[in-house]
Give the backbone structure.
Amino acid sequence: MSDIHVLVSPEAGRGRAAGTATEVLDRLRSLGGHVIDLSGADAAASAANARDAVAAGAERLVVLGGDGMVHLAVQAVAGTDTILGVVPVGTGNDFVRALPGVPEDPLEAAAVALGNPDPIDAIRVGDRWVASVATAGFSADVNDRANRLRRPKGQTRYTVATVLELPALKRRPTTITVDGAAHAHDAVMIAVANTAWFGGGMHICPDADPDDGVLDVTVVDGVGRIELLWFFNRVFKGTHLDHPKVHTHRGHRIEIAAEVAVWGDGEPITTGNTVLEAVPAAIRIAR
């Protein structure tokens, strides 16, 4: 087997997770691969290393981490021939939820990461890529707050961030244009999805499919704090779409006209008016 370029999440490389990362790397080697670790001192260095490797013709890039590391890797591999493999060792792992062929067990996932590629779609936002879900409004505000919290760690941090952001809940006049058709909203939260999950298991766009070439949009309009808590209680089950203030759209090109921050895969993407496009077969994924 040829070289296997690897990115290891900082969280996966220290503490109790460090043992899992070591076992996964050993597993990749035992399967006949020559492992080249591209992990840098920080995310920027890792991203630069990944871009350089892909530009030099890397056949495969395997990520050990969660959705943040997948997002980093996708910036390098989307639109190229490089195969992406994912070994889920993060807290959310929403991207992998949409890939039933990828096991939750890291050692089993390592073997799948060396398998044959299958193309899936991605979201293009300017010169950036989103693998799973782009969000704006309250969900983006929660992401921002969570990233600024030093503790607690893991998924609990997002629960705390949600509670802290509730008093600042805002409705934003928003026009969402779907393949040329404009829709007016009094939006509290917007999700534009390639895959169905975000936020550590919230089934925000239950019909989203990374193989169908279109994007699914869920908009929560004009709800108050109590209604929003109801929404979050239902969204983990994917049973929120029947609420009268929840609206859905589907299309290839989504334009959001509003003064909002847009996040994707839990990472900041842009602010203000934003165009999101479905790009079919943008990622060659081992699954």
The radius of gyration is 19 Å. The longest strand covers residues 181-193. The domain at 3-115 is CATH 3.40.50.10330 (Rossmann fold). The chain has two domains: 3-115, 130-280.
